[in-house]
Amino acid sequence: MREDVPILPAGSYFGARRRDRRVGSTALTETVYHDGERLDRHGHATTTVFLPISGAIHESAEGRTACYSPGNVVVTPPDRVHQTRPCGPETRVLNLQFSEKWLDRIGSDIRLEGRTSVSLPSISRRLIAEFFSDDPFSDLAIEGLIAELFVSFGRSRSKMPRSRPRWLNQAEQIIKARSSDRLTLDELASSLNVDRAHLARSFRAHLGQSVGEYVRAERIRQAIDLLPDRRRTLADIAARCGFADQSHFTRVFRDLQGTTPAQYRRSL
Domain 7-159 belongs to what topology? Predict the structure, then answer.
C-alpha cells in the first residue's frame, strides 16, 4: 500500500463495541460512535460490510465523500483505505465480517472487488432486527438474509457500468451547491447534458442512493452544521436548507439521524 495507515485485523473496529454475535461463518458486531469523533484513516484486513442502525456516517475514500444512513449497505474490500466521521449524538453501526472460506465459496461474481454501496432498506432493517432477536430461529434468519444481501450485491454489480462517469462528480457538486433549491431531475440532467433515466441509474449504481435520497442527506448535513448556532430557530434552519417547513425538516432528520433536530441540539 502507498499509505502508512493501520489495517485493522478481523474483529477489530474503531468505536465502542456494544454487542457481538457469531452466526456460522459470520461475525456480527454493533459499534457506537458519538458526534465529533473523527476516526483515523484505516483499512480492514478482511472484507467488511457495515449497515448504519441510527445516525449517519460521512466517509471519505478514494478521493470521494459519501454519506450513509440507515438503509444503506456498504462493502469495504480488504485493505481499502477510508476515513469516517459519525454524524449525530449517537451513531450505531452493524458490522459484518466473514471467513475467507465462506467468501471463496460464494464465488467471484458476488464477491466484490471494489468498494460498493447500495440502498437495501428492507434487507438492512430485517437483518438488524434479527441481530437483536434472541429467539431460536434468528440464526437461521440471519444466514438467509446475508445470502440475500450478497445476491443483491451480485445482481447490482452485473448491472453496474464498469467505470464511474466523469460527469457524476459534477452532479454531486451541483447538488451540494443547490441542495436548498427545488432542483428537479430534469434540470440536473439538462445541466449535465445526459438523459434523465441514465442519470438516475448511474447515480444509484455508483453512489448507492437515488438522487432524491442524496439531496435529503445533503440538506441534513447542512442543517447539522447550522444547529450549534442557537440564534437560529429550527424553522429558520428548515427554510435555509430547503425543507417545506419545520415539520418536514423534523421528519426527515429523524428518519436519517434517529433523533429530532431539537434533541440533537440539546445534546450539543
Answer: Jelly Rolls (2.60.120)
